[in-house]
Design brief:
The protein is an alpha+beta fold and 237 residues long. Strands 2-3-7-6 form a 4-stranded antiparallel sheet. It has a two-stranded antiparallel sheet with strand order 1-4. The longest helix has 19 residues.
């Protein structure tokens, strides 16, 4: 049954806490534009360039971890329906079509293609002291502690057709983490860019239609990083 402006305006999503969700304000702002588009369709003015199917499919929302956010799969499913109907009404850019690999919205009954498996990656192993590669822990680092090299070489699986974290934002944050660890290990806390609390509070934008880092892997590594930084703080030293 076709969506109506009222259905979009009254749409409600489950709120989640303590796991990744979509920022409520970001999703609500997009739905305001979607409602305008369906109001134009109802007036017989589907050609009005309010929003296109591709803009809905390419939408990016800030992620939430410790604060409440909309349940991601509910939002994604609803936006898939929205994009399909917009495309059916001609609200698409010239040449606009679903991204390669995405399930075609014009045939929602067809089975979705299996997601591409994550890129294989090797987790850097902690080198033994005096090993053949000569890469031991940084001078001054506690035995077994996370090193700047460990952060620099960290790799995450890439998601496709599911929610992921914006890769550029995660990489930039890890650059700051690498600098912070190097400063702490070398006894220069004044040069540290991050605290354990900063790591726990960080939020990354999420991706839908393009690749992103696996949220579960990123979150697990951030927990490890926060614990490592806390060990350098005065109350835990």
């Amino acid at each position: 049954m076709p969506l109506t402006p009222a259905e979009i305006r009254n749409k409600r999503f489950t709120l989640v806490r303590l796991r990744p969700g979509y920022n409520e304000d970001d999703v609500d702002a997009l739905l305001d534009r979607v409602e305008e588009a369906f109001a134009a369709i109802a007036r017989g003015r589907a050609e009005e360039p309010v929003i296109t199917a591709a803009e809905v499919e390419d939408s990016v929302f800030r992620g939430t971890r410790l604060t409440a956010g909309y349940k991601e799969d509910e939002v994604d499913d609803f936006l898939d329906q929205v994009a399909a109907e917009l495309r059916g009404h001609g609200l698409a850019r010239p040449g606009d079509r679903p991204r390669p690999g995405a399930s075609a919205p014009v045939d929602r009954g067809a089975p979705a293609p299996p997601p591409e498996p994550p890129r294989a990656h090797a987790e850097p192993a902690a080198p033994a002291s005096g090993g053949a590669n000569g890469a031991g822990p940084s001078p001054g680092a506690p035995q077994g502690a996370m090193s700047p090299e460990h952060v620099r070489n960290k790799r995450f699986a890439t998601t496709r057709l599911t929610t992921g974290y914006n890769e550029d934002e995660v990489d930039a944050f890890l650059d700051s983490a690498e600098v912070t660890l190097s400063a702490l290990i070398n006894g220069r806390p004044d040069r540290a860019l991050l605290t354990a609390a900063d790591v726990e509070r960080v939020r990354f934008s999420t991706t839908r239609a393009r690749p992103g880092y696996d949220p579960a892997q990123v979150d697990a590594f951030l927990d490890e990083l926060a614990a490592e930084l806390r060990g350098y703080e005065p109350d835990h030293a």
